[in-house]
Automatic annotation (TrEMBL):
Species this chain originates from: Anaerobacillus alkaliphilus
GO molecular function: thiaminase activity
Protein name: Aminopyrimidine aminohydrolase
UniProt keyword list: Hydrolase, Thiamine biosynthesis
Name of the coding gene: tenA
Residues of the active site: 207 (proton donor)
One GO cellular component term noted in the UniProt record for this chain: cytosol
Function text: Catalyzes an amino-pyrimidine hydrolysis reaction at the C5' of the pyrimidine moiety of thiamine compounds, a reaction that is part of a thiamine salvage pathway. Thus, catalyzes the conversion of 4-amino-5-aminomethyl-2-methylpyrimidine to 4-amino-5-hydroxymethyl-2-methylpyrimidine (HMP).
Any single GO BP term: thiamine diphosphate biosynthetic process
Reaction catalysis annotation: thiamine + H2O = 5-(2-hydroxyethyl)-4-methylthiazole + 4-amino-5-hydroxymethyl-2-methylpyrimidine + H(+); 4-amino-5-aminomethyl-2-methylpyrimidine + H2O = 4-amino-5-hydroxymethyl-2-methylpyrimidine + NH4(+)
Recorded superkingdom: Bacteria
Assembly notes: Homotetramer.
One Pfam family in the UniProt entry: TENA_THI-4
SUPFAM superfamilies listed in its UniProt record: Heme oxygenase-like (SSF48613)
InterPro entries tied to this protein: Haem_Oase-like_multi-hlx (IPR016084), TenA_E (IPR026285), Thiaminase-2/PQQC (IPR004305), Thiaminase_II (IPR027574), Thiamine_Salvage_TenA (IPR050967)
Length: 224
């Protein structure tokens, strides 16, 4: 069995929890409170700035030019395609450039992005890919699920989000990362696979926490 198939099977309960989160469900139903989405967009923009750096680290750790090139194009598509969606949403949701630039990351945004960067900087290329994969894979899965709901892709506010993450182009990027992880894990001892599974599980858990943080608009518990 490929390592990605093992991960997919073993982590079904938490994947389902992500799909069933009220933020995701209400986005699909078109009933999500706009203030929650606005909060999410700002936090996600901050998150993606750090996330994009993982692709630069991936290019550094890659051992061949082809893999370096793929990481470079993932970096480009995150900065110039995925984050363009956020910039368009910023206009739609009245988020000024200044607000976006001065926004502070929530504790969950900080914890999630710093965990990934820590793994990416200190671990192997397989560790880095295990850390970044739930982000791409789970969004693609959620995008595809939501796109099956009649009318969801045409929703005035949430349709663009669903179209971006259910798209063939986004899916291709996720597939490349899945295949790379399978390639990098071929023949690895069980002890090493367990460590990678733990990393993948941690960022999958962070995905859930990110939905929850956005739904509750959760910042630090004190204002100081
Ligand atoms: C928190 C989060 N996870 C995943 C993605 C998809 N790149 C995202 N934009 N934000």
């Amino acid at each position: 069995m490929k390592f990605s198939e093992r991960l997919y099977q073993e982590l079904q309960p938490i994947w389902q929890a992500n799909h069933n989160h009220p933020f995701v469900q209400e986005m699909g139903a078109g009933t999500l409170d706009k203030e929650k989405f606005r909060f999410y967009m700002i936090q996600d923009y901050l998150y993606l700035i750090d996330y994009a750096k993982l692709f630069a680290l991936g290019a550094m750790k890659a051992s061949d030019v082809k893999t370096m090139g793929r990481f470079a194009s993932l970096l480009n598509s995150t900065l110039n395609e995925e984050m363009s969606l956020h910039r368009e949403y910023a206009v739609k949701f009245d988020i000024s450039e200044e607000e976006l630039e001065n926004a502070s990351p929530s504790p969950t945004t900080l914890a999630y992005s710093h965990y990934m960067l820590h793994v990416g900087q200190n671990g192997t290329l397989a560790d880095l890919v295990a850390a970044l994969l739930p982000c791409m894979w789970s969004y693609w899965e959620i995008g595809k699920e939501l796109s099956k709901i009649p009318g969801a892709s045409d929703h005035e506010f949430y349709g663009e989000w669903i179209n971006m993450y259910s798209s063939e182009e986004f899916g291709q990027l996720a597939i490349w990362c899945i295949e790379l992880l399978d390639e990098l894990t071929l023949g690895l001892p069980e002890k090493e696979l367990k460590k990678l599974e733990e990393i993948f599980l941690n960022t999958t858990r962070f995905e859930y926490m990110f939905w929850d943080m956005a739904y509750n608009q959760a910042m630090w518990p004190t204002n100081e």
